[in-house]
Structures are given as structure tokens and as C-alpha cells.
Specification:
By secondary structure, this protein is an alpha+beta fold. The protein has four domains: about 130 residues, Tumour Suppressor Smad4, CATH 2.60.200.20; about 260 residues, no CATH class; about 90 residues, no CATH class; about 180 residues, no CATH class. It contains eleven helices and 35 strands. The strands form seven sheets. Strands 12, 13, 14, 15, 16, 17, 18, 19, 20 and 21 form a ten-stranded antiparallel sheet that branches. Helix 7 packs antiparallel against helix 8, helix 7 runs parallel beside helix 10 and helix 8 packs antiparallel against helix 10. The chain starts with a helix and ends in a 25-residue tail after the last strand. This is FHA domain-containing protein. Pfam families: FHA (PF00498). InterPro entries: FHA_dom (IPR000253), SMAD_FHA_dom_sf (IPR008984).
Length: about 750
């Protein structure tokens, strides 16, 4: 970069960031732009689903924060559930600031560039909003420094003037010439400092927040139109400050929207209605009950197999909002109350309106012909379900089967629909019965309150209640983050991993965190403290408790997802070959989960990872040179060389409590890797050798484990081809069984009898 560019860059200040979305439902011809401007008070701005108008849970309410630093902008992921990705940095680390480059690409709701697997993630291009740099004027006078005369007489002090605040000064005339060089004569200091007025220290400003004029929050059964809500506790008040009023008319339903997606346990929050996810800004929102039905979680658990796919078909509709009359006013005499007394009795907001909603959720169990439900088959199942229910009951040609999928049965749940729809929630329906019921359910929906619309009392004529409260601006964001964690923990308890008796302590940790939040939430606003040095909120013991519970719960669910994925993998051994040195061939055998990235080198084996939360261990060893049997040894059926490689797990008690690899070089007839430690699951392995013979038929190995090929077993045993001199290299990937005790996956360890290492052949 040239010196001129450096100078110009120093004068440029980024005032905002524009996110340009060109992906569907938008296009490059008509992109949608979302602008975030710098908050001058702290040079930071928060980004969340509210900015993009998103109802999908991939983008968090407080997903990330932008920090403006003159010509640069930094972005920090605030621990979002699905992550953030940029083209300049890659996956963003949680709570770590990364430079957001002008012209780069960012994805909210995924830790990779947006793909077909994450269609609802938000992908946007970055464009800086920069202030126009001021023109730097060159000095019109060249001033030569001269030696000052110590005897120079300085004029007396001019008459003192009161300092004019900057806010009252007239704006500078942009056409007026500004002096660029100072020619003022330095003034001597007063020799009598006692005449100077004492400097008074400015009193430290009290942290305060301006409450929003309007807030939308999830509806609560305790809400009543016209009654108050306390912003600091989220509790509804027992009295109203408004004059009596009557509601008129009834709201009309708006056009409904249909959503189709595949249900997985790694994204169980998709089972929640989006209404439960919308939370207000400057209010400590009371938690709402999780709408996910235990029947759905039970259905997920029972159908967690490679031969079935669960598709969710949702129809969600809203009504136009309804408001109390606009001519309501404060009751006589209430305007004379002090702010503290008024807030204590009537809160900060009053319930000015509500929005009703209705919805029908169907969970469809699809049978898959293939052994594993690949992404391609899942898309086929989604298309099958969508076309089947869009065809309608009147169409006799609605097909419940495609090339590789068929619809087995359907479970239905509704809210706010016709009054006689409750009978559908009693059991499972056939595809045709569900198809016939759908139009009846959605005909003339009644709706049920889903969103409460709050107005601040200052919006009323004659009410002088201040919107300023002595609470730090970060407090509400922190509470909303804790509430999101609380919602997560509630849904996590439905995961089948927490149904296992082996993990009752993990489930109790989550329940304890939930109870603690419910007990302490109302007083969180007052308990969150500001660290004076870092100017940030200190984490409370409650935040540490629920954050730890979330972290450990997600780790447990990740292990469940990992081992379930291994179970669904094909178990056929693949053989490949490459050309080696001196016209030799290198043969490879491979099955299962292999090729993890090295995470930690250990004494006897290594820890590897296949992604966040997908950790395993890897052991590898090589045989000595194997040579063909001579005719004499073949005659007597004995061999001085091993013809078999084994991975064997033994109890540490057998070797005086020693753990790790034991017995190196002690076994003649077998090439063993004996691991002293806990029980294991073999999740993948590779075998290779250099072959100087012909490519066909090439070396042949033998596995005595049917079609399983030792996948998810407690050992590995491979009989080698000793017809040519070579060395064999084996690498095995395994996990310890104690971390994967999930009865729903039916991972009963297949205890294959160990080979007799003392047997003669």
C-alpha cells in the first residue's frame, strides 16, 4: 500500500455495514439490503434474526456483535447455536473478535459456506458505509521556528468568557477557510497559582438504558389487555392504569405459510414454534413453556434408524394484530404519582395489543428403501411429502410413494385451529386420513394469542413517565442470552441421550440449571454487575451454571449423534491400489470412520477429531517383514512368521493396573496391538501393504466377522496374505464405550471371542 493510501485510510471512518442478500428468496437483480449503523455511545451494534426478519432458529436473537474501530469493523459470534462463517476468516470462534473485511461474504446460521444442507442460513455480501474523508489542506504559510526572547512582554489576560457547550455552538461554515498553522504566541504561566479556580472532578455517570417505546413478547396466560408489565422482572401487574375501554371487531386471518424440513435430533429446536422464539428488547421476558410435544420426541426416538426419515410439514398462520382503542388515557390522579410509585403499581409498559396465530404440525414417518438415509434420499422424502399434501384430498392421484421412499403414518398437532381438531392428536393416522383431515383443520381457524404488544406508558397523552431506567444497556442482552440457554436446556431434556439411565447425573445437572434460572430470573436485572475496568457485565454464578449445563449437554448429544452416524455407515470393505516405487503397487483396505484430524498426540495412541464434538482415538502399528512359507514349513503346517494382525482390548488388572499398549514384541504368531483400558467400540480401520506381485488378483485378506467387518465390535482381527514378502500397516479408530451408553441406538457390544495367541498353526 502506498503512502498516499495510508494517509487517506487514516481519515476514513466506517459508520455502518450493509448486508446484501442475493440468495433466495431474493436475487442478484433484486437483492435485499440490511443496514447496521454504528452506535455512537459504544461503537458496537448487535445483529440477530430481528434484523433480517427471519423466523428460522438458525440465526440467534443476539447472534453476533459488530465493533467499529475507525476504518475497520470486527465481528464477534456471541455463542450462537449454529455458528457464523466468513470468506476471509472461515468459521468464527465463539466470543472471539475477527476482522470483517469490506467486500467479503458472511453466513449467519452455519459454520461453513451456505450449501443445500443449510438453505435457511443467511448469506450476504459485506459493504462498508464510510464517512467522506475531509480534504487535507496544505499549509499556505511556511513558518520558520525562531528563538523566543525571554524578555518578550506578553499582554495581560483577556477578560474571561463562559465556555459555550458544543451543542449550542453554531455549525461551522463549510465554505469558511480554516487556518492550518497556528501563529499564536505562547503565554507564560501565571506565577500565582492560588488565584486559579480549583478543578472539580466530574461525578461518575450512572449507567442507564432507554426503554423501547414498543416491545413484542410471547403471550402469557397471565396477560390481560390494558394491564401493566414490569420491564425489570417481566411480570404482569394485577391492576390497570388505563380508563375503561371496549374491544371492537375481530381480527382477520392472514395468508398461511407452509414449511417442510427433515427432523433430526441435532436440531431439535425446530420442534418449537417460532412464536416462542421472539423475545423483546428492553424487558426481562418471563420464560414460556416449551411447545415441543413429548409425543414427537418419542416418535423421534422410536424411529431413529437408517431405514426411516422423519419429515415435518407445518402450516403456520397469523391474524392481523388487534389493539385497544387509541383514545385510552391514564386514570385521574395517576399522573401525579412519583415515578417509583407508579412503576411499582403499574409497571413500565401496558398491554396495548395482541396477535393471534394458528398452526398445524404433521410429523410424517417415511420408509426408506436404501440402507442409509443419505442427504439425497432426505430431499426425495421432503418432495414426496410436500407434493402429497399440496395435492389435497380432492385429488385421487396423490401419491404416497416415490422411487426410494414411502409414507407410513402421520402424527398431527394443532393450535388455534377448528375446535373439533383435538381428536386428531390422539394417535397416528394413515397418509390418506391425514390428507383428508388437513383442509378441515385449517378451515375457519379461531386462533389463539401468541404475541403480546407492549407500549410504554409515556406514549399516553399526559403521562410523563421517563423511559430511562438505571440499568446498564448490556443487561437486557445478557438476560436474553440466558433465556435462550434456558429454552435450549428445556428441549435438550427430550433428547434420547438423557433418557439413558447411565446419564441421570447429566439430566439432573440440566434440571438443576433450569430450576435455578426460574427461581432467580426476576431479580437478574439488579444482580448483574458492571465491571468498572472492562466496562462489561460480570458473569454471575447463575450464568456460569446454565452455560456449563448447556456445554456438557451439547457434548453428550454430540456423542449420540456421532455414534448414531457411525452405526448408519456402510460396512463393506473397500479395496484400492496406487502405483508405488519401482513399479510396485500399494494396496489399501478401508471401512468405517477413518482419517480424523490429529488433535493430541498421546503415548500409545492419538486423539483425533472429525468435527466439533466428534472425537475419537486412533492407534496404528506395522508388522515386521512377512515372507512366504518354505515347503518344509508348509508340510508340517507351522510358520515362523505371523499371518494375522489383531487389535485386542484387555483389562488393566491383567497387567498390574497398567494402561495403554502392553506386550510390544512379545507375541510371535500374531501382530498384536494389545490395549489395556476400558471397553471400546471399533468405528473404522485401514490396512495397507506394498505388493510387488501382479495387480490381479493381488493380495487377499480374510475377516471372520460376516458383513459387520468388526464395525462397533470390541476388537479387530485380520488374516494376512503371506504369499509375497511385504510389511503390513494397520490403523484403527476407536472410542471408549463408557462415553456412548445409549440404549436407544442398540449398540450392544459384540464381544467376539479373542484369538488364541498361543495356538500353533
Amino acid at each position: 500500500m502506498s503512502a498516499t493510501e495510508n494517509k487517506n485510510t487514516g481519515n476514513v471512518v466506517v459508520e455502518g455495514v450493509v448486508f446484501i442478500c442475493e440468495d433466495p428468496p431474493y436475487s442478484k437483480n433484486k437483492p435485499k439490503k440490511f443496514t447496521v449503523k454504528k452506535d455512537d455511545s459504544n461503537n458496537e451494534s448487535t445483529i440477530g434474526r430481528k434484523l433480517f426478519g427471519s423466523t428460522d432458529n438458525l440465526v440467534g436473537y443476539n447472534h453476533a456483535i459488530l465493533t467499529f474501530d475507525r476504518a475497520k469493523v470486527y465481528i464477534t459470534d456471541l455463542g450462537s447455536g449454529h455458528g457464523t462463517w466468513t470468506s476471509s476468516t472461515g468459521k468464527l470462534m465463539s466470543k472471539k473478535a475477527s476482522l470483517l473485511k469490506d467486500g467479503s461474504t458472511i453466513v449467519f446460521g452455519a459454520d461453513h459456506d451456505k450449501t443445500d444442507a443449510t438453505p435457511n442460513a443467511i448469506r450476504a455480501k459485506i459493504e462498508y458505509l464510510k464517512s467522506r474523508p475531509q480534504t487535507i489542506l496544505k499549509p499556505i504559510l511556511k513558518v520558520t521556528p525562531t528563538q523566543l526572547d525571554n524578555n518578550l512582554e506578553v499582554p495581560a489576560h483577556p477578560v474571561t468568557r463562559s465556555v459555550t457547550p458544543d451543542t449550542l455552538k453554531p455549525p461551522d461554515d463549510s465554505k469558511k477557510h480554516r487556518r492550518t498553522v497556528s501563529l499564536e504566541i505562547p503565554i507564560k504561566k501565571d506565577s500565582n497559582p492560588s488565584k486559579e479556580a480549583p478543578v472539580q472532578k466530574r461525578a461518575q455517570a450512572v449507567a442507564s438504558t432507554e426503554l423501547q417505546r414498543e416491545v413484542k413478547i410471547p403471550w402469557s396466560e397471565t396477560f390481560r389487555l390494558g394491564f401493566g408489565v414490569d420491564a425489570l422482572t417481566g411480570e404482569s401487574m394485577t391492576r390497570t392504569a388505563l380508563t375503561p375501554f371496549k374491544m371492537s371487531g375481530s381480527p382477520r386471518p392472514k395468508q398461511s405459510k407452509t414449511y417442510v424440513n427433515t427432523l433430526h435430533w441435532n436440531d431439535i429446536r425446530s420442534l418449537q414454534d417460532q412464536y416462542d422464539m421472539e423475545i423483546g428488547g428492553t424487558i426481562n421476558v418471563a420464560p414460556t413453556s416449551v411447545s415441543m410435544s413429548t409425543r414427537i420426541s418419542s416418535l423421534l426416538s422410536k424411529n431413529a434408524s437408517a431405514s426411516t426419515v422423519l419429515i415435518q410439514y407445518r402450516v403456520i398462520g397469523e391474524f392481523e394484530p388487534e389493539f385497544i382503542p387509541s383514545n385510552v388515557a391514564l386514570q385521574n390522579g395517576l399522573s401525579d404519582l412519583s415515578e417509583d410509585v407508579f412503576r411499582e403499581r403499574y409497571g413500565d409498559y401496558y398491554l396495548a395489543g395482541r396477535r393471534r396465530g394458528y398452526g398445524c404440525r404433521m410429523v410424517i414417518v417415511c420408509q426408506v428403501d436404501e440402507k442409509s438415509s443419505t442427504d439425497k434420499v432426505e430431499v426425495e422424502a421432503q418432495v414426496l411429502v410436500e407434493n402429497f399434501f399440496k395435492a389435497g384430498a380432492a385429488h385421487s392421484n396423490a401419491k404416497s410413494r416415490s422411487k426410494n421412499c414411502s409414507i407410513l403414518h402421520v402424527m398431527i398437532e394443532t393450535y388455534g385451529c377448528t375446535a373439533d381438531a383435538s381428536y386428531l392428536s390422539n394417535g397416528l393416522l394413515s397418509p390418506n386420513d391425514a390428507l383428508a383431515a388437513l383442509p378441515k383443520i385449517l378451515t375457519d381457524p379461531k386462533g389463539t394469542p401468541r404475541i403480546g404488544i407492549l407500549y410504554h406508558y409515556s406514549s399516553l397523552k399526559g403521562c410523563n413517565l421517563s423511559r430511562s431506567v438505571t440499568v446498564h444497556a448490556d443487561v437486557f442482552a445478557k438476560i436474553h442470552e440466558m433465556r435462550d440457554i434456558y429454552d435450549d436446556l428445556q428441549t435438550y431434556l427430550e433428547h434420547p441421550a438423557f433418557q439413558a439411565e447411565y446419564y441421570t447425573r447429566d439430566a439432573e445437572r440440566v434440571r438443576s440449571a433450569i430450576r435455578a434460572f426460574e427461581k432467580k430470573r426476576k431479580n437478574l436485572v439488579r444482580n448483574l454487575k458492571l465491571d468498572r475496568k472492562s466496562k462489561r457485565l460480570q458473569d454471575t454464578d447463575l450464568y456460569a451454571q446454565i452455560a456449563e449445563a448447556k456445554y456438557k449437554a451439547e457434548a453428550l448429544m454430540k456423542r449420540h449423534e456421532f455414534i448414531a452416524g457411525v452405526k448408519a455407515m456402510p460396512r463393506k470393505v473397500s479395496r484400492t491400489s496406487n502405483l508405488g516405487a519401482k513399479d510396485s503397487l500399494i494396496f489399501f483396505w478401508e471401512v468405517g470412520k477413518v482419517g480424523g484430524r490429529l488433535k493430541k498426540k498421546m503415548k500409545h495412541y492419538s486423539e483425533v477429531t472429525f468435527g466439533p464434538g466428534f472425537d475419537a482415538y486412533e492407534a496404528e502399528w506395522e508388522s515386521p517383514l512377512v515372507t512366504p512359507l518354505n515347503p518344509f514349513m508348509k508340510k508340517f503346517g507351522r510358520s515362523d512368521h505371523p499371518d494375522q494382525m489383531n487389535f485386542i482390548r484387555i483389562d488393566p488388572e491383567e497387567v498390574n493396573g497398567e494402561k495403554g499398549r502392553v506386550g510390544d514384541g512379545n507375541d510371535k504368531e500374531f501382530f498384536n496391538f494389545r490395549l489395556a483400558g476400558g471397553k471400546v467400540y471399533v468405528i473404522g480401520w485401514t490396512l495397507s501393504c506394498i505388493w510387488d506381485g501382479k495387480a490381479e488378483p493381488g493380495p487377499v485378506i480374510q475377516l471372520d466377522d460376516g458383513e459387520n467387518n468388526f464395525m462397533l465390535s470390541n476388537q479387530l482381527s485380520v488374516k494376512l496374505d503371506t504369499s509375497r514378502p511385504t510389511k503390513w500397516h494397520c490403523r484403527i479408530t476407536f472410542v471408549f464405550q463408557s462415553k456412548y451408553m445409549f440404549p436407544d441406538l442398540k449398540l450392544d457390544q459384540r464381544n467376539i471371542s479373542e484369538p488364541d495367541i498361543d495356538k500353533d498353526f
